[in-house]
Specification:
alpha+beta, 6-stranded antiparallel sheet, two-stranded antiparallel ribbon, 6 helices
C-alpha cells in the first residue's frame, strides 16, 4: 500500500494554516495574560514621571532615579492632592486623570467640535503647591513628551522629558539631567504675555542664569528635536493659561 503524498501543495498549505492558528493562539493568550501587568507598569511609569517633575525622586549626583514601583502608588497619593480634568470652561476632579491618553486627545481635537480633555495634577511638597501638566509633540524621528511642574505664576519648578526614538547622544539627551534641570526657574510669561520656552541655539547663557528670557540652551546637533520641544511647550502649555489665570482671580 502506497503512503500518502505529503509533497502536494495542499499538505503544505494545510500545515502552514495550522501553524499560523497555533502560533496566533499562543500570542493572543500571552498578550491577554500580560495585559494587566502592562497596564499596571504604564500606570506606575506615569506616576513616577509626574512625581519626578515636582522633584520627588531618588536622584543622586547626576543620575535619574525614579521612586521605585513598590512605593510609587503610596507616594503619589501622598503628594498629589488633586487630579483635574479641564475641558473648555469646565474643571472637574478625577482620580484617574493621569490615565488620560494625551496623544489620543490631541488627535481627537483635530475635529473642531471636540473639546480636548486636559489633565492637570496638583501636588504639595514642603508647603509649596505644584501644577504638573503632561505635554506631547514630535521630535526628529518620532514622539517626544514631558511632564512640566509649575507654580501658580507658570514658573517652571521641574520637568521630565522622554522620547520614543531620538538619536542617541544627540536628541535623546532631552532625557538627561543637564537638559531637564535647565528648565527649573524658567518663566512661561514675559510682560504679561505667554511666550513659552524656546530651546535656542546661540543662547549665550551656558550656565542658564537668565530665567526670564524664555530660553534654554539647545543640545548640540539636535536642532529638530529641540524645535519639537519648543513647539510642544508653546502649543500644549498655552492651553492651560486660562486655568492659571483663574488662580490669580481667586
Amino acid at each position: 500500500m502506497m503512503g500518502k503524498n505529503t509533497d502536494k501543495n495542499s499538505y503544505t498549505f494545510i500545515f502552514a494554516v495550522i501553524m499560523v492558528l497555533v502560533v496566533g493562539s499562543i500570542l493572543a493568550f500571552t498578550a491577554q495574560s500580560l495585559k494587566e501587568r502592562i497596564t499596571e507598569n504604564e500606570r506606575f511609569e506615569k506616576q513616577q514621571n509626574i512625581l519626578y517633575a515636582m522633584g520627588i525622586n531618588d536622584n543622586e549626583d547626576g543620575s535619574i532615579t525614579f521612586i521605585s514601583t513598590d512605593k510609587v502608588a503610596d507616594i503619589f497619593s501622598q503628594y498629589i492632592t488633586k487630579q483635574l480634568v479641564i475641558q473648555g470652561d469646565k474643571v472637574t476632579e478625577d482620580d484617574m486623570a493621569y490615565l488620560i491618553d494625551v496623544r489620543r486627545e490631541k488627535k481627537l481635537a483635530k475635529n473642531k467640535s471636540y473639546q480636548r480633555r486636559l489633565p492637570l495634577f496638583v501636588g504639595k511638597k514642603e508647603g509649596k503647591t505644584f501644577y504638573i501638566v503632561p505635554i506631547r509633540g514630535k521630535g526628529l524621528w518620532d514622539a517626544i513628551w514631558a511632564y512640566v511642574a509649575m507654580d501658580e505664576n507658570m514658573v517652571v519648578q521641574g520637568a521630565f522629558f522622554d522620547h520614543k526614538a531620538e538619536t542617541p547622544g544627540l536628541g535623546a539627551n532631552i532625557k538627561q539631567r543637564f537638559f531637564m534641570d535647565d528648565f527649573i526657574g524658567e518663566h512661561m510669561f514675559s510682560n504679561g504675555i505667554f511666550k513659552g520656552i524656546t530651546v535656542a541655539k546661540g543662547n549665550n547663557d551656558p550656565l542658564n542664569r537668565r530665567k526670564d528670557d524664555n530660553r534654554v540652551d539647545a543640545i548640540a546637533g539636535a536642532t529638530i528635536t529641540g524645535d519639537g520641544v519648543t513647539a510642544m511647550i508653546k502649543s500644549d502649555i498655552r492651553l492651560y493659561v486660562p486655568y492659571f489665570k483663574t488662580l490669580k482671580s481667586n
